[in-house]
Amino acid sequence: MKYVVVGTSHFGFEVVETILKGDKDAEIHLYERGATASYMSCGSQSYLEGISKDLDEMHLANEKSYRNQGISIHCNSDVIGLNGDKKNYPC
Ligand SMILES: Cc1cc2nc3c(=O)[nH]c(=O)nc-3n(C[C@H](O)[C@H](O)[C@H](O)COP(=O)(O)OP(=O)(O)OC[C@H]3O[C@@H](n4cnc5c(N)ncnc54)[C@H](O)[C@@H]3O)c2cc1C
């Protein structure tokens, strides 16, 4: 089945992992308006407190790891609507 997931943070990441567990042949298109995937906003606090030294550590996944799972990841893509009838999603 073909899936469209909007957003790569906690919710989007979990949705993708859940789909893959249930449907090994899933065709997943993952959209993120930001420049990078799966930034954990909750990790910002540990960065500001100096516990984590690099904001790049604050990612659940990245474009490469998604691609390695067979997912079509699209960063810098702001989804402005989902058209269920025509089965398309303008960015
Ligand atoms: C400092 C801090 C500490 C926190 N600590 C905790 C904690 O201890 N425990 C806890 O449970 N929660 C905590 N939270 C809250 C937690 O981070 C959020 O609940 C969680 O990020 C929500 O995840 P989400 O995927 O639903 O939404 P978001 O994190 O808001 O992610 C939405 C994603 O979708 C993308 N997006 C949105 N609209 C579009 C669009 N139209 N097209 C394409 N992409 C789009 C965004 O760019 C973003 O990447 C904390 C938050 C902060 C800021």
Q: Unreliable segments (pLDDT under 50, ≥5 consecutive)?
A: none
How many beta-strand runs?
3
The CATH class, by name, is: Alpha Beta
**CATH architecture designation:** 3-Layer(bba) Sandwich
β content, as a range?
5-15%
CATH fold node name:
FAD/NAD(P)-binding domain
Query: What is the topology, as strand order, of the major beta sheet?
Result: 1-2-3
The whole-number mean of residue pLDDT values reads: 93
Number of domains: 1
Give the overall form. Answer: globular
Class by alpha and beta content = alpha/beta
Q: Which small compounds were modeled alongside the protein?
A: flavin-adenine dinucleotide
List SSEs in N-to-C order: EHEHHE
| Radius of gyration, whole Å | 14 Å
What report would you give on this structure?
The chain is α/β, with parallel strands linked by helices. 26% of the residues lie in helices and 14% in strands. The chain is built from three helices and three strands. Strand 1, helix 1 (10-22) and strand 2 form a beta-alpha-beta unit. The protein starts with a strand and ends in a 17-residue tail after the last strand. The model has no long low-confidence stretch (mean pLDDT 93). Bound molecules: flavin-adenine dinucleotide. Residues 6-12, 31-34, 41-42, 44-45, 78-79 line the site of flavin-adenine dinucleotide (FAD). Flavin-adenine dinucleotide is lined by residues 6-12, 31-34, 41-42, 44-45, 78-79.
